[in-house]
Write a structure and sequence with these properties.
- By secondary structure, this protein is of the alpha+beta class.
- 36% of the residues lie in helices and 34% in strands.
- The chain is built from four helices and eleven strands, in the order ββββββααββββααβ.
- The strands form three sheets. Strands 5-6-7-8-9 form a five-stranded antiparallel β-sheet.
Length: 187
């Protein structure tokens, strides 16, 4: 139970999340970090089983470095999202699924990107996306306020409003909002 959102802006990408971690109806933590940087150009927001998500992010962090070193140039955001998708799919096919949903956001030479991925291995490019138990409320805010060519500051404000709205109605979301902005290089 959580609320995470991702938005693509003209000059970067934005991720936001609440801070509550719950175990059923028990609030296990009020300071959980659900946004994880992979590096300076890529980050992931997580919903679901935190241990599975942390494992996936650590694997992606290592694989991304190795692949970039081998070929001499960095992986694109799309390639990184596909790597995550392949890890999810591999787990599902081996009957050891990763119980998590991820929002992948980052920047590369083509600009800002946001992708959603789930435990089945699906990957979708999005302009904006929400996940977790608070996502129906967050989507209401995102759909009413999002427009093409937002700046990261405008996207940041919309992301905060979406998570705050979800925290008002979803008992699995709460205890504040964390935001990460990934600006386009040189922007």
């Amino acid at each position: 139970m959580t609320t995470i959102v991702g938005l693509k802006a003209s000059d970067g990408a934005v991720l936001a999340s609440d801070r509550r971690a719950s175990k059923g109806f028990f609030i296990a933590s009020k300071t959980t970090q659900k946004i994880m940087k992979v590096d300076d150009t890529l980050a992931v927001a997580v919903a679901g089983l935190l241990s599975d998500a942390v494992y996936l992010v650590n694997v992606v962090r290592a694989e991304r470095k190795l692949i970039s070193l081998r070929r001499g140039y960095p992986m694109s955001v799309a390639e990184s999202a596909k790597l995550i998708s392949n890890l999810f799919y591999s787990g599902m096919r081996n009957y050891i699924p990763y119980y998590a949903e991820l929002i992948v956001a980052g920047v590369d030479d083509e600009g800002a990107h946001v992708y959603s991925s789930d435990m089945s291995g699906s990957i979708m490019a999005e302009s904006f996306v929400a996940s977790g138990s608070g996502s129906p409320v967050a989507y209401g805010v995102l759909e009413s306020l999002y427009s093409e060519n937002l700046t990261v500051e405008q996207a940041r404000n919309i992301a905060v409003r979406a998570v705050e709205a979800a925290m008002q109605r979803d008992p699995g979301s709460g205890n504040g909002v964390d935001v990460l902005v990934i600006p386009v290089r040189g922007g």
